[in-house]
Structures are given as structure tokens and as C-alpha cells.
Amino acid sequence: MTRSEHIRALQEEYTRQRAANEEDQEARIARACAAIPEIGRLRQESTDLALNAMRSILAQQDEGQRVAAAKEMKHRGQEINARIRQLLIGAGLPEDELKPRYRCPVCRDTGYVGEAPARFCDCFEARLRLRQYEDGSMAGLDEQNFDSFDENIFPILDGQREIAVSTKRMCEQYANAFPNTDCRNILLMGEGGLGKTFLLNCIFERVTSRGCSAVRITAFRMFETMRQQHVGNDENYDGFTTLIEVPLLLIDDLGTEPMMRNITVEYLFTLLNERMAAKRHTVVATNLTGLQIKERYGERIFSRLTDRHQCRIIHLKGKDLRGL
Length: 324
What we know:
Blueprint: H1 3-35, H2 37-59, H3 63-90, E1 112-113, E2 119-120, H4 122-133, H5 160-177, E3 185-189, H6 196-209, E4 214-218, H7 219-231, H8 239-245, E5 248-254, H9 264-277, E6 281-286, H10 290-297, H11 299-305, E7 311-315
Parallel strand pairs: 3-6, 3-7, 4-5, 5-6
Antiparallel strand pairs: 1-2
Helix pairs in contact: 1-2, 1-4, 2-3, 5-6, 8-9, 9-11, 10-11
């Protein structure tokens, strides 16, 4: 899908979300009125008050009388709202139980913020990036997050469980502190099946749940973004620029992407170099050893991936969990 197609699909998603918000609010109101009939009466009084006050204001010829009618309506409306809140609290419900609830309180699930011309809300931009880069190969965040980490699946022998628990703790501290982390980048290394992708997804879930912007992408999808940038068929394509500029970029399975002349090494160097220069955060998971990274990508990329002044290198060791 093109960026425009993703935007249209996401706008439809936001429309559905607003409809779901309205249904949820109406259901909460209905339950509250059924449990506390006085709330229903007060809400009807509030509606009648607004209508009657408007008629009264329009009927008045004197400006002072119109102002007085408006003040009286406002005062009574405040009294009604205060009484409704009191009734809700008395019933053990939140005082804002009858108000709308939004997935994003900033844009109120419209996807837009600001005066005309409005711009996309940060929540919309973040979801747009997810749509553009997710390929379905990564597990859902409801399955892979720090809360679902189970140390008991790791063997005790050879310190595998100890290493896994320690790594989980470091990754969680990183995600909780972002963007004010002790180290800017993380390089997760080790053979397949040791939990690197899981930890990468955990970091992504925690950072984005805190409202920060991030992109997680497989190395293959990253290569496709680089290739599309290199071919340049779409002058409006900005996928590679997004990878450079997103505050947190998480790359999974580095080393599994195709090696194409004038693309893979060149664009990966540009990506890493630009992100380092801008002091942006990057997390990389790979099955490659340090020597294999140097042989595959060269010294320049190796030095940027393993710069110990900016990167915490974590080696996972042990048996493949998928075979246990």
C-alpha cells in the first residue's frame, strides 16, 4: 500500500473508533441512569434548562437581561453537574463516568490537532508508521511485553536463566527511562531462539505505551524501505527518512536482509550514521557475531553498531527455547 492508501485506511479506523467511543459512552450513561434514576432526571433537566435559557435569551431585548439569563443558566448547570458527580461517587463510580473516553485525549480520536490547516496528531503519525512498517511477522504486543516475561522457561544450567533475567531487567530499565537512558543504543546478540525478538518487542511496547514514538521493523522490511528509496519511483516516498528521524528505531534480525550492491551496506551506514549524529536511539537484534557483522557490513558499520560509548552490547547465550 502507498502512504496515501495507509492514511485513508487509518482515517477509516479513527472514524470507527469515534463511533465505538460514542457507543461506550451511551452504554455507561444508560447503566448509570438505570442504577441511579435521579441522574437521568438531572440530565433531562440540564437539557431542558439549556433549551429554555436559549429561548429566554433570544426573547430579551435588554442586553443586561440577556447576560443575567445566561449567568443563571450557567449557575444552575454547574449545580446539576456537581450533584451528578456527587451521586456517581456515592455509587462507587468515577465522577467522570458519563464523559466521553478517548484513545488519544489530545486529538480526541480525530487524528488531527491545531487550527486550520490542521496537522496529524502524534498518535496518528505513530500508527501510520506502524502500518507502513509492520509486516505481520512480529508477534502482537499483547503476547510479547515485559509483564508476560516468564523466567521459568529458561534453563538454569550454564546461567541461561540468570542472563535472561538480567537482560530483561536492563531492557525494562531502558524502556522505562526512554529517552533519558544511560546508554543511547542496545545491541542484542546471540543465536536464534534465545529471546532477542521478544525483548525487542517488550521495549517497543513499553516505550509506545508511555506515549513515545517508535518504529519496530524487521531487517528484511528495512531493506525494502532502502530499496524503494534507492529506486525512487515515488517522489513522495518518505519511508527511509522516517527510519532516520523516528526517536526510537528497533531493528530485528539484522543479517537476514538481502545484500544488494549499492543499497544494503550504503543505506544501512547512512541510517546508523545519521541517527548517531542526531543522537537518536536505536535497538538492534541480530544472530550475527561481532566478526560476522564486520565481515558482512565492513568496519564503518561495525564500529557504529558496537560503539561502547553509545551502545550497550548484550550477549544472550544458551539453548534454543523453541526446541525445549
